Amino acid sequence: MSILIDGKAHAARLREEIGRQVGRLRQHDLITPGLAVILVGEDPASQVYVRNKATQAREAGMSSFEYRLADSVPQIQLLDLIERLNCDPEVHGILVQLPLPPQVDEARVIQAICPAKDIDGFHPINVGNIATGGYGMVPCTPLGCLTLLKFQLGDLSGKRAVVLGRSNIVGKPMASLLLKEHCTVTVAHSRTRQLEEVCRQADILVAAVGRPCLVKEDWIKPGATVIDVGINRIEADGRTRLVGDVDFEGARKVAGALTPVPGGVGPMTIACLLLNTLEATCRQHDIPFPDDIMSLAWGSTSAEMA
Ligand SMILES: NC(=O)C1=CN([C@@H]2O[C@H](COP(=O)(O)OP(=O)(O)OC[C@H]3O[C@@H](n4cnc5c(N)ncnc54)[C@H](OP(=O)(O)O)[C@@H]3O)[C@@H](O)[C@H]2O)C=CC1
Ligand SMILES: Nc1nc(=O)c2c([nH]1)NC[C@@H]1CN(c3ccc(C(=O)N[C@@H](CCC(=O)O)C(=O)O)cc3)C=[N+]21
Ligand SMILES: [Mg+2]
């Protein structure tokens, strides 16, 4: 049986540490980190995430500003709001929940966000800086995955990593981060041939495809570390249930360690969003922050703790 990587517990620890740092900022520097979240439309799942983000931001001592816009909102109105938030000194981080409705140009909206306040790490300036080895905001979901991987495995150098999915918000930045950690990285997607064989090579398998239970037991190399990013709502026995992109019951027979859904990557995504907001706040006020923001995320690895 494999080790269960408890993302929920990790995220709670990380949020506590963030809360302490926020307390310090408020007391010594009289600054309260502020997070603005924009939600367009009424997608129920998105509403849950936005609510969780706002609640957890407040619990960590941050200010949270929520903007709910109608599905039919004209693009110019969204761009105007972003411009206002860019100039607002009480807002240190801006997140626009994706996807956006068809009348809105997603790339245009992302580029409107001031890169220093782009806590999602989606702005081309941040993407480019990360890809070329410089400083940039790191997207929250891949950062959460990397944090869990480093906790579980310590040094990732030389490991074979397979990232399943190539989206701008998960797959591509995940591959970029793993490469930075000196993994040998393969990115697989819907056109990949012999997908199962490719996956079976992986010491580290990150699944981010949005296909319920796609990854089966026999796609996994025995002992591999499996990170399941997928959040899929399925109907089973007349009720909806949340499942990942990995067949959990099968995978736990062969994997060395794996993340559950729920309780794995999801909570880490939100904790990393708060971490990015804290970091953005420090940078905007010229307050020193640990060079390696990860040190806050993984104070100690499981190997060190054992
Ligand atoms: N836990 C969290 O915090 C988060 C979870 N998610 C979840 O992660 C999943 C992925 O999200 P996202 O990256 O936005 O998804 P996208 O739909 O943007 O991208 C999916 C990727 O998977 C590939 N793919 C789809 N089907 C297959 C298949 N059968 N075989 C191989 N590759 C396939 C696609 O290939 P191609 O490019 O060729 O089309 C694409 O690259 C979703 O379930 C989403 O809900 C997302 C963000 C955060
Ligand atoms: N600009 C932008 N940034 C994002 O980071 C972003 C986004 N848009 N659009 C949607 C996806 C999805 N996402 C999740 C966040 C938390 C959970 C989460 O907390 N999940 C809980 C369960 C929550 C539930 O019950 O639905 C868990 O896995 O345990 C899931 C998914 C962030 N995303
Ligand atoms: Mg997408």
Key structural traits:
306 residues, Rossmann fold, 2 domains, six-stranded parallel beta sheet, globular, binds NADPH dihydro-nicotinamide-adenine-dinucleotide phosphate, binds 5,10-Methenyltetrahydrofolate, binds magnesium ion
Mean pLDDT, nearest integer? 94
Number of strands: 11
Quickly give the CATH architecture of the largest domain: 3-Layer(aba) Sandwich
Terminal residue distance: 19 Å
Helix content: 40-55%
The geometry reads as globular
Low-pLDDT residue intervals, each spanning 5 or more residues = 299-306
CATH class division of the largest domain: Alpha Beta
CATH superfamily of the largest domain: NAD(P)-binding Rossmann-like Domain
Radius of gyration (CA) equals: 19 Å
Give the spatial strand order of the biggest sheet: 1-11-8-7-5-6
Number of domains: 2
SS summary, helix count: 12
Secondary structure class reads alpha/beta
CATH topology of the largest domain: Rossmann fold
Q: Name the bound molecules.
A: NADPH dihydro-nicotinamide-adenine-dinucleotide phosphate, 5,10-Methenyltetrahydrofolate, magnesium ion
Largest sheet: 6 strands, parallel
Strand content: 15-25%
Which H/E pattern describes the elements?
EHEHEHEHHHEHEHEEEEHEHHH
